[in-house]
Fold this protein.
Amino acid sequence: MNIPGWIWAPTLVLYAVLFVIDLLVVGRRPHVPTTAECLRWLGLYVGLGIAFGGALWMFAGRQHGVEFFAGWITEYSLSVDNLFVFLLIMARFFVPRELQQSALMWGIVIALVLRAIFIALGAAVIARYSWVFYLFGAFLIWTAVKLASGGETDDDEYHETTLVRWVARVLPSTPDFHGTKLRTLVSSKMLWTPMLIVLVALGTTDLLFALDSIPAIFGLTDEPYIVFAANVFALLGLRQLYFLLGDLLNRLVFLQVGLAVLLGFIGIKLVLEALHENNVPFINGGQPLDVPVPSIGLSLVVIVVILTVTTVASLVVARGDEEATAE
């Protein structure tokens, strides 16, 4: 799939317009969004994602359309896990509830820029070194094992990164928030506000999560255009999901197990693809192996089934626990 510049350009403009509109809406009146407001925006973004995937299916073929939907759903599901940490970051820095929309929006923009760089580097490496699929596959399988054993994240505590600690220590700042401002005048001195540290924390944390999600989506498609599009549409609705899910996140008790199975499946798929295209001298003498590789259509079905079973099982167990507690 060779995407010419005249398609990339208007696509990037579309993404920029969507984010600018979101930023203007949020920046105009910082507030805690209502459920109805979140549903409207989330419905818009999901509709745009479906329309984009449908257009891709129509003009680029079924294969690329299915690749987008598989990648988009995967990125969305992995993003939900990010929300646990986002909640912890907001609590750690005592971000007022009405300012959390702005913090999330700018954090998402930073994350998208960093992911774009990561995607470009990943695409360049894959194009030159096909054996990197072995590394991606092994990394995803290792991550899946850590998730399944509960060792990937700590849902009770947020650990500041080195960059966040450095920013907080080096830059002169005020301890108080001043609306959505990053800098403010205090006693005739221009100081940074805690909002800057929150944005750095959100952006860098999302980049750490991208170390899992980017290799995962490259396991579903090797087309950078589709990889970037899936990330954009997943990140666009992340702010609304944050406010919509809220306490529901704590009821998704099997989320990590489901994501572990998902990442494990894609990791195995990557290893099988690497074996199928093998040119590593010390594996089968550098000759490809005739191994079965799950099709993208089957992969999409598996992803949907895993996420559906995970969500339903989590809600059933959570409801049972609530009823038992009530009794």
Summary: Residues 84 and 250 are 9 Å apart (CA to CA).
